[in-house]
Amino acid sequence: VQLQASGGGLVQAGDSLRLSCAASGRTDSTFAIGWFRQAPGKEREFVAAVSWSGRTSNYADSVKGRFTISRAVAENTVYLQMTDLKPEDTAAYYCAARNYFSRHALTPASYDYWGQGTLVTVSS
Hints:
Layout: E1 2-6, E2 9-12, E3 17-24, E4 32-38, E5 45-51, E6 57-59, E7 67-72, E8 77-82, E9 91-98, E10 113-114, E11 118-123
Parallel strand pairs: 2-11
Antiparallel strand pairs: 1-3, 3-8, 4-5, 4-9, 5-6, 7-8, 9-10, 9-11
């Protein structure tokens, strides 16, 4: 499985941004895609995840109500729509995949495949 993340950039607080994660290779119907982020000097943390069907998702408390994760079935792409961005959202964002969706899969070690990061910088 190969994952390609894109869409990062420099925005101001309150702005919106959409990240994309394009998946290729072997992707089963039970797959799940997650987004994690890592700020300088901090550990990588869970942001959101969605099942391959797109019907099930979960979010970190810090982004609930502001971020939306979705899957474009025809494109094999998962999006992370981020609104009302805050300076504390500044981080490198990574997409990752695992073989099945679980609400308990909240750590980087829970995921098997990783894409490269895309940098999001939110200025105040």
